[in-house]
């Protein structure tokens, strides 16, 4: 087992404890040119939250339109742009970078006991490429929008008169940002772990981010190439996907899902990684089955490359191919299930404190369970024929992506907020918001399962009257969910106006980020931490002396 | 479980739908069990092991090999059962029997066109006899569409540049809704159709006389409908402009110059002959490319088209 001590010299010793990274330098330039992983993480955080707001506004408009059949507030053309932009913004600009690039960037080096990521300049480049990609995305939105769905299926996308070329270019650019982050994290995790931190003394958040980074680096180039081919076809009429030009439209789906299925795990693995941190801390227990969780992350990363065809069971692909893809899909379900059981077992005989992060972790367990279990209906060949491209699929992936990833992201944000900004938020408001989010989410998405099983196809502007009551439920749910999220934003922002009041370790966490001050100093640690214990060692023995004071 | 089935799933229109639903409800039961198990454990642990004061955890257990094997292997066995069962039903859903009635399906933004073996064509609706397997051979003229009939539990993409097929054995008389399930643009959500499952008798009657709506429609109106649905409009304009065939504007009651130099008065007989035996008299300066509609139009439909041409003055 490689046990690479990152560095043996003490870091900038003697730095006064007061200069936390937020205050270490001042001025606009000190932010936009910063090489500090923490500041880049914070810039990423505000950026993805802004995109979450934008994608959320599109979502609310989509739900409002669906309140009644036919026109409620907009025409079909506008509606088609709304759901496309909702998907594209949420996937490419929010959820893929959300956890790794914002929380990951901030926490990963701290957890490793490192001073920064391996390539700070690459890290900054990743952020600015993200911004450039986002700008192209916004340009596409204001110059006609895009009406293809975020999946850009050909030949619709090669013949649509909307700004598909600009939007695909945006996604292409964003891919580089994602690759840069992935490469950087892989190098950081290999090279910069604190002395004594062997692979199996590395926190599970790191394992999750590591598995994610592997997928980011291996899968994203495929998306890039596919989007370039799409642009070539649109701009130069090179026949690749359009049958009128001699192409094959189903080929696009293979290319697209070869990236986009692993991308589902780019989205969910970091969420699982956060849950693996929160549950031990708030149960005061060593994690159950550390190695099983670590290995299952890596197993998921690899198997995820072999299941893309489960998006295409009704596309006309061969029955044999469908059978193989279905089989592999069921295999990938097992490691995810094992993780859930491990988290449950971690709570067993713990000392459970229902602070906000733990509330979100529990929400995650239940919502992700529904998301995962409903996946069985879609992985099974016969039931997928009926459910493919219906609201059942919409509900399923929202349970995984929102009930799983977004809830974990919000949980992680609550968990590390005191570390990032040095302030505690209002626990009372946090509970109210968590309850609203849980209720709102379920009211929005549970009815969609029934809409789907009863045969309501997705991406429908208009629908039969029989579906109206469930759509109305769903729309009302979206208002409750929206309200809950706004409350979160409110009390988190309000906490920033207070003085620093967060202790270094408000929750009793055992990983290294809790051994430095909140917020951390610019170089993270006063002294290089030395790791001797397991990452979630909650046994009564004295905890390692916190670095610094 | 039947009450739950009737909430979750639409009525069954085929034997395959019943087969599918049994499998579906098996997964419902299985997933409900695991969901309740997880929820019950979460709730119980949170309540039983909630932190009192500043208490540490009761135990620091981190492994239990037997337990870990159990919770990996049992789910593995269960999902393998789901896989095998799903594959079995999938093959049934997608393997058509040999003696099926074959209907050609052409999808285009945003209509469904059908053609029966005898050349009869319909748009957005088909009639099929009960108890006889139907095989659909499908292709698209523009983007990808998807043929989805919830009450039959079947779906397949309809792709340009290639053929896909789908089949069903209708067993419930009445009306079934067809949806387009692959997003195809502005009219996607209105790209609906109807599948009417008729008794053998009613089906034959429909073949001969058309459905009730067209049976009672005024002739000229029916003619206008056929002008579009039978493709006359691709070769004949109504505004005097020249397409592959002469415009219908002002034809009726006038002398028509033929390619052999003679002329003929365009009366009912001439129009009728032009439709059923187009090669008999070729209009001058046009080529004899019009296909014959002999046997493809019902008697009333020929009359309707003549009436329609008459009206174009
Ligand atoms: Cu369509």
Kindly describe this structure.
The complex is a heterodimer of chains A (549) and B (313). With 549 residues, chain A is an all-alpha fold. Chain A has one domain: Cytochrome c oxidase-like, subunit I domain (Cytochrome C Oxidase, Chain A), CATH 1.20.210.10. Helices cover 64% and strands 0% of the residues of chain A. Chain A is built from 15 helices and no strands. In chain A, helix 3 packs across helix 13 (391-421). The radius of gyration of chain A is 23 Å and the shape is globular. By secondary structure, chain B is α+β, with helices and mostly antiparallel strands. Chain B has three domains: 2-40 and 67-94, no CATH class; 101-210, Cupredoxins -  blue copper proteins (Immunoglobulin-like, Sandwich); 214-310, Cytochrome c-like domain (Cytochrome Bc1 Complex, Chain D, domain 2, Orthogonal Bundle), CATH 1.10.760. Helices cover 39% and strands 20% of the residues of chain B. Chain B is built from nine helices and twelve strands. A five-stranded mixed sheet of chain B has the order 3-2-1-5-8, with no helix packed on it. In chain B, strands 4-10-9-6-7 form a five-stranded mixed sheet. The mean pLDDT of chain B is 91. Chains A and B meet through helix 3, helix 8, helix 10, helix 11 and helix 12 of A and helix 2, helix 3, strand 7 and strand 9 of B. Bound molecules: copper (II) ion. The site of copper (II) ion has 6 residues of chain B, from loops.
Summary tags:
heterodimer, A: 549 residues, mainly alpha, Cytochrome C Oxidase, Chain A, 64% helix, globular, B: 313 residues, alpha+beta, Immunoglobulin-like, Cytochrome Bc1 Complex, Chain D, domain 2, 3 domains, five-stranded mixed β-sheet, 12 strands, 20% strand, elongated, binds copper (II) ion
Write the layout of secondary structure elements.
The complex is a heterodimer of chains A (549) and B (313).
Chain A: H1 28-32, H2 37-65, H3 76-112, H4 120-142, H5 156-159, H6 164-191, H7 204-236, H8 249-283, H9 290-303, H10 319-347, H11 356-379, H12 381-387, H13 391-421, H14 427-453, H15 468-495
Helix pairs in contact in A: 2-3, 2-4, 2-15, 3-4, 3-6, 3-7, 3-8, 3-13, 4-6, 6-7, 7-8, 7-9, 8-9, 8-10, 8-11, 8-13, 9-10, 10-11, 11-13, 11-14, 13-14, 14-15
Chain B: H1 2-8, H2 15-48, H3 65-94, E1 101-108, E2 111-115, E3 121-123, E4 125-129, E5 134-140, E6 145-149, E7 154-158, E8 164-168, E9 174-180, E10 193-198, H4 200-209, H5 212-215, H6 219-229, H7 232-235, E11 255-257, E12 263-265, H8 268-276, H9 299-311
Helix pairs in contact in B: 2-3, 6-9, 8-9
């Amino acid at each position: 087992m490689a046990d690479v001590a990152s560095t043996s010299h003490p870091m900038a010793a003697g730095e006064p404890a007061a200069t936390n990274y937020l205050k270490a330098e001042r001025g606009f330039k000190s932010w936009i040119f910063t090489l500090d992983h923490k500041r880049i993480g914070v810039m990423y955080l505000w950026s993805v939250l802004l995109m979450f707001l934008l994608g959320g506004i599109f979502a609310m408009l989509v739900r409002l339109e669906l309140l009644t059949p036919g026109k409620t507030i907009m025409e079909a053309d506008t509606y088609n742009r709304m759901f496309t932009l909702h998907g594209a913004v949420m996937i490419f600009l929010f959820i893929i970078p959300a956890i790794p690039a914002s929380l990951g960037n901030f926490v990963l080096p701290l957890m490793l006991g490192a001073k920064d990521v391996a390539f700070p300049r690459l890290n900054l480049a990743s952020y600015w490429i993200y911004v450039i990609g986002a700008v192209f995305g916004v340009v596409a939105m204001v110059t006609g929008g895009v009406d293809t769905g975020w999946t850009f299926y050909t030949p619709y996308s090669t013949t649509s008169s909307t700004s598909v070329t600009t939007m695909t270019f945006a996604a292409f650019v964003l891919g580089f940002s994602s690759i840069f982050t992935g490469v950087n994290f892989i190098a950081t995790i290999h090279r910069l772990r604190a002395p004594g931190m062997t692979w199996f003394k590395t926190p599970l958040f790191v394992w999750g981010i590591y598995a994610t980074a592997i997928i980011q680096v291996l899968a994203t180039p495929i998306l890039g190439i596919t989007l370039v081919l799409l642009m070539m076809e649109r701009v130069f009429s090179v026949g690749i996907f359009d049958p009128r030009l001699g192409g094959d439209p189903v080929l696009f789906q293979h290319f697209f899902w070869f990236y986009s299925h692993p991308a589902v795990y780019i989205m969910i693995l970091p969420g699982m990684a956060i849950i693996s941190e929160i549950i031990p801390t708030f149960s005061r227990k060593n994690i159950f089955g550390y190695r099983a969780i670590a290995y299952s992350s890596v197993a998921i990363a690899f198997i995820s490359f072999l299941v893309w065809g489960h998006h295409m069971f009704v596309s006309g692909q061969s029955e044999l191919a469908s059978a193989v893809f279905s089989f592999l899909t069921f295999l990938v379900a097992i490691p995810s299930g094992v993780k859930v059981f491990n988290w449950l077992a971690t709570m067993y005989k713990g000392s459970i404190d229902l602070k906000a992060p733990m509330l979100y972790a529990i929400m995650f367990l239940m919502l992700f369970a529904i998301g995962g279990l409903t996946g069985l209906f879609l992985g099974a060949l016969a039931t997928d024929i009926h459910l493919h491209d219906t609201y059942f699929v919409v509900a399923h992936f929202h349970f995984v992506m929102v009930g799983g990833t977004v809830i974990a992201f919000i949980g992680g944000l609550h968990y590390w907020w005191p570390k990032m900004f040095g302030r505690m938020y209002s626990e009372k408001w946090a509970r109210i918001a968590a309850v609203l989010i849980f209720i709102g989410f379920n009211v929005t998405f549970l009815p969609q399962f029934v809409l789907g099983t009863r045969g309501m196809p997705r991406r429908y502007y208009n629908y039969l009257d029989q579906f109206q009551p469930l759509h109305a439920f769903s729309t009302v749910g979206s208002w409750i969910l929206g309200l809950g999220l706004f409350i979160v934003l409110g009390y988190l922002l309000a906490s920033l106006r207070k003085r620093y009041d967060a202790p270094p370790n408000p929750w009793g966490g055992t990983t290294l980020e809790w051994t430095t001050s909140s917020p951390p100093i610019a170089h993270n640690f006063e002294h290089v931490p030395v790791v001797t214990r397991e990452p979630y060692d909650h046994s009564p023995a004295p905890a390692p002396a916190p670095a610094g004071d | 479980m039947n009450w739950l089935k009737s909430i979750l799933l639409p009525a069954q229109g085929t034997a395959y739908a019943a087969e599918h639903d049994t499998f579906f409800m098996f997964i419902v039961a299985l997933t409900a069990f695991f969901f309740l198990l997880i929820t019950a454990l979460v709730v119980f642990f949170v309540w039983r092991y909630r932190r009192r004061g500043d208490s540490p955890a009761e135990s620091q257990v981190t492994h239990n090999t037997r337990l870990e094997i159990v919770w990996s292997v049992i789910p593995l066995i269960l999902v393998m059962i789901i896989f095998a069962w799903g594959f079995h039903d999938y093959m049934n859903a997608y393997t058509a029997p040999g003696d099926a009635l074959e209907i050609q399906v052409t999808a285009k933004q945003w209509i469904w066109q059908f053609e029966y073996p005898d050349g009869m064509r319909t748009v957005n609706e088909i009639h099929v006899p009960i108890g006889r397997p139907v095989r659909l051979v499908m292709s698209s003229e523009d983007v990808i569409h998807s043929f989805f009939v919830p009450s039959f539990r079947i779906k397949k993409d309809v792709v340009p540049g290639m053929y896909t097929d789908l089949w069903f054995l209708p067993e419930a008389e009445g009306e079934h809704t067809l949806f387009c399930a692959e997003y195809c643009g502005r009219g996607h959500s209105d790209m609906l159709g109807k599948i009417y499952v008729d008794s053998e008798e009613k089906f034959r009657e429909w073949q001969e006389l058309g459905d009730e709506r067209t049976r009672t429609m005024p002739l000229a109106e029916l003619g206008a409908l056929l002008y579009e649905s039978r493709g006359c409009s691709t070769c004949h304009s109504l505004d005097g402009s020249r397409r592959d065939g002469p415009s219908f504007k002002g034809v009726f009651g006038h002398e028509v110059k033929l390619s052999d130099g003679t002329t003929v008065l365009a009366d009912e007989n001439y129009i009728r002959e032009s439709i059923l035996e187009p090669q008999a008299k070729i209009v001058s300066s046009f080529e004899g490319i019009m296909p014959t509609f002999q046997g493809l139009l019902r008697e009333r439909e020929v009359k309707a088209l003549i009436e329609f041409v008459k009206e174009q003055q």
